[in-house]
């Protein structure tokens, strides 16, 4: 019962954070950490003892899968060079550079444990970045690189983290064996992700053959997919992380959504957005819950002289070290890209100083780092405590918070002015696509309307076609490049939307009145309300896109 109440309390706080973030100018992750700390402080901290493998299974697959599904695949493919450079090269550079720096600064942390902490700190969190700064302020190319990097370095960083933890537990490490194991984990993990996608597609096909299957059953198949990928990969001792990422990346282009009904598609998209928000928020609130107790029990290795100044200074130094390593790697990568372009006699796409600095500060740590570090084993195989576990958890938590604070203070100032004023490329692309789709629809409707019917049927077809085509022409006019034409079309669209919403409100009031007078039962009312709400959501969604 206590666990159930605890989960409900966390969910309530996640909900409140979504409302409060609109009222206070604080990044959502920082607000959630503060709310968790406020909840825990009066009761001297709340510790949640969770099995490390269970913790990874519950949080990692849905988070990574959701991020992968939402990632812009075309941009990731076009920017694969710098993304892979950061997602793989920078991870190894961070593990070596930060690991040795940490062991030198805090000798009580064994070198292998320092490498483990460096590995779990290497994944970045683009979701946290987008909550800190407006996406329209950061250059689109940089934002896509940060998104792609955060998606792939989750896999590479956590795979290396697991190797480092295994080295601590076994007391031995072989570079050759680790390299072969890494290649196997990557290859088998990718195959497991593909297999999970195929299994999900076959399951949906089977449900379609059965017929009249509830949409919720189809949605459940999509929800289970990342867990199937993760568990399948872990069963063959591969990377479950890469399996979940692979399944998510391939989901959009695989055509699996064609096996879902309209209702199931809408429920799936809505549910994944909700799950992503809940899991990210729950992780940050869990960090906040631990914060008071972490502060009260600062590891003695960091508080030998000053109880507060020394640990805060250490966390700040380590965070700046990560930013410096990241800046150095991006800078060297720019030099290498410039030299390669010169030898290849092509134009180099390099970053300026401010963009490099924004990319360095924007590499904040977030939910994946927290999930990874909290999954550290409690004890060694012989029953002794895992070396420096409390210390590295303290440092990881401190670096997450410090990187978020630094980014929230510095990134908006660094990024200001980097994007030229004007229409966002994504908005222009959406406008062109909307016009192309509308023209195709008009051509098809006119062709069907003039299919050779005669008499009253032909007249009815043409009348209905004219009504539908008029709506498409208004959509084209609203996307016209001429400002005056767009303004007129938008005003007409606004008036139409206002009238349609008024009619919807009247429908809702009438259904409610019929229910109160017992002309209809609650089932009929709910069915009608669902239809009305769907229509209203579509109209408001169209309004938001304009």
Automatic annotation (TrEMBL):
Main localization (coarse): membrane
Keyword annotations from UniProtKB, A to Z: Antiport, Cell inner membrane, Cell membrane, Ion transport, Membrane, Sodium, Sodium transport, Transmembrane, Transmembrane helix, Transport
InterPro entries named in the record: Cation/H_exchanger_CPA1, Cation/H_exchanger_CPA1_bac, Cation/H_exchanger_TM
One MF annotation (Gene Ontology) recorded for this entry: sodium:proton antiporter activity
GO CC annotations, alphabetized: plasma membrane
Location in or out of the cell: Cell inner membrane; Cell membrane
Segments forming domain Cation/H+ exchanger transmembrane: 13-414
TM annotation in the entry: 83-106, 112-134, 155-176, 182-201, 213-233, 239-260, 272-291, 311-332, 353-379, 391-411
BP GO terms, sorted: regulation of intracellular pH; sodium ion import across plasma membrane
Pfam short name (any one): Na_H_Exchanger
Keyword Signal carried by entry: no
Bilayer topology: Multi-pass membrane protein
Keyword Ubl conjugation assigned: no
Family label: Belongs to the monovalent cation:proton antiporter 1 (CPA1) transporter (TC 2.A.36) family.
Record PANTHER family: SODIUM/HYDROGEN EXCHANGER, SODIUM_HYDROGEN EXCHANGER 7
Function: Na(+)/H(+) antiporter that extrudes sodium in exchange for external protons.
Listed name of the protein: Na+/H+ antiporter
Organism, scientific name: Mesorhizobium sanjuanii
């Amino acid at each position: 019962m206590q666990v159930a109440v605890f989960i409900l309390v966390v969910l309530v706080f996640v909900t409140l954070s979504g409302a409060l973030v609109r009222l206070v100018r604080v990044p959502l992750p920082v607000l959630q950490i503060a709310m968790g700390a406020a909840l825990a402080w009066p009761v001297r901290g709340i510790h949640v003892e969770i099995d490390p493998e269970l913790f990874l299974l519950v949080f990692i697959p849905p988070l990574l899968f959701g991020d992968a599904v939402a990632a812009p695949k075309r941009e990731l493919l076009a920017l694969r060079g710098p993304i892979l450079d950061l997602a793989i090269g920078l991870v190894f550079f961070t593990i070596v550079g930060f690991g040795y720096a940490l062991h030198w600064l805090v000798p009580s942390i064994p070198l292998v444990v320092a490498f483990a902490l460096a590995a779990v700190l290497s994944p970045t969190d683009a979701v946290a970045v987008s909550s800190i700064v407006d996406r329209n302020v950061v250059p689109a190319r940089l934002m896509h690189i940060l998104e792609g990097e955060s998606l792939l370095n989750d896999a590479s960083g956590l795979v290396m983290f697991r190797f480092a933890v295994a080295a601590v537990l076994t007391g031995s490490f072989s570079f050759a064996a680790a390299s072969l194991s890494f290649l196997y984990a990557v290859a088998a993990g990718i195959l497991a992700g593909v297999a999970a996608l195929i299994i999900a597609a076959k399951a949906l096909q089977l449900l379609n053959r059965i017929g009249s299957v509830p949409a919720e059953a189809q949605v459940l198949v999509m929800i289970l997919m990342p867990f199937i990928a993760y568990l399948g990969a872990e069963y063959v001792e591969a990377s479950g992380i890469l399996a979940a990422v692979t399944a998510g990346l391939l989901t959009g282009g695989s055509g699996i959504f064609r096996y879902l009904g309209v209702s199931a598609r809408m429920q799936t998209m809505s549910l994944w957005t909700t799950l992503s928000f809940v899991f990210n928020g729950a992780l940050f609130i869990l960090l906040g819950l631990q914060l008071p107790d972490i502060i009260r029990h600062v590891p003695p290795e960091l508080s030998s002289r000053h109880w507060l100044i020394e640990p805060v200074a250490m966390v700040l130094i380590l965070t700046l070290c990560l930013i410096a390593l990241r800046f150095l790697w991006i800078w060297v990568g720019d030099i290498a890209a410039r030299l390669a372009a010169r030898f290849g006699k092509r134009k180099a796409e390099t970053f300026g100083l401010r963009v490099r600095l924004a990319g360095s500060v924007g590499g904040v740590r977030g939910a994946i780092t927290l999930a990874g570090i909290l999954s550290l084993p409690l004890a060694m195989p012989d029953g002794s405590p895992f070396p420096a576990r409390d210390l590295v958890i303290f440092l990881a938590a401190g670096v997450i918070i410090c990187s978020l604070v630094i980014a929230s203070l510095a990134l908006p100032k660094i990024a200001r002015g980097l994007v030229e004023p004007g229409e966002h490329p994504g908005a222009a692309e959406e406008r062109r696509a909307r016009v192309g789709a509308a023209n195709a629809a008009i051509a098809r409707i006119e062709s069907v309307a003039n299919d050779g019917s005669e008499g009253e049927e032909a007249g009815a077809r043409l009348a209905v076609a004219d009504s539908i085509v008029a709506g498409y022409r208004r959509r084209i006019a609203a996307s016209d490049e001429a400002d005056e034409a767009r303004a007129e079309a938008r005003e007409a669209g606004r008036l139409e939307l206002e009238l349609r919403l008024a009619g919807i409100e009247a429908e809702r009031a009438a259904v409610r009145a019929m229910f109160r007078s017992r002309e209809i039962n609650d089932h009929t009312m709910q069915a009608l309300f669902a239809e009305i709400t769907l229509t209203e959501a579509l109209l408001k969604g169209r309004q938001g896109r304009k």
